[in-house]
TrEMBL record:
TM regions (residue ranges): 12-33, 45-67, 88-111, 131-154
The keyword Transmembrane belongs to this UniProt entry's keyword annotation: yes
Native source organism of the sequence: Saccharopolyspora phatthalungensis
Keyword Membrane applies: yes
Name of the protein: Lipoprotein
Keywords: Membrane, Transmembrane, Transmembrane helix
Length: 173
């Protein structure tokens, strides 16, 4: 490795591109903060961010960390069974995460917050938001279940093929 680059990575802990990206993020954040200083609703924005941080860090994070711990613990306990076992953990995590993010994104429409403004701007009601979110949720979990079943079938087929090869080798010797 190029000697100054090796020294840099030893000192900084990452490549120079990482530092450029971090500095760019700080510059963007500084620009946004500078633009918000003139905002008359700045106090409300700060309160909203503080409440979001508190809600996430003190309530939501412990809840989904506990749920993930239960999920991975249940999978570890099931490993003792016979046959090929494909971990269902990511097949559950991905649709739950996608569904949660979509709920967060579309929650104002689902609870019909700002219904008169939405109706005036689009000429439509917020009625379909909940049903569409539910349909997307069902679709995400159905697709994940289908992918898990395909992966499980493939693992069973590989295991049968592997045991067939093992049995053939044992009979030859």
């Amino acid at each position: 490795m190029f000697r100054p680059l090796a020294r840099w990575m030893r000192f900084y802990g990452a490549g120079p591109l990482h530092l450029v990206i971090v500095l760019g993020c700080f510059a963007l954040t500084g620009y946004v903060v500078f633009q918000l200083l003139a905002e008359p609703l700045l106090v409300r924005i700060v309160i909203w961010f503080a409440a979001a941080i508190i809600l996430h860090d003190l309530v939501l994070f412990p809840l989904y960390a506990l749920a993930d711990r239960v999920l991975t613990g249940a999978h570890r306990g099931a490993r003792n069974t016979t046959g090929p076992l494909v971990s269902p953990v990511n097949y559950i995590r991905v649709p739950v995460l996608a569904t949660g993010l979509l709920l967060l994104l579309f929650l104002p429409g689902i609870i019909r917050q700002g219904a008169p403004t939405y109706l005036a701007a689009t000429g439509q009601t917020q009625e379909p938001f909940l049903s569409r979110w539910l349909l997307i949720t069902v679709g995400l979990f159905a697709a994940s279940t289908l992918l898990y079943c395909v992966r499980l079938c493939y693992a069973h087929r590989q295991a049968k093929r592997q045991t067939g090869l093992t049995n053939e080798h044992e009979t030859e010797h």
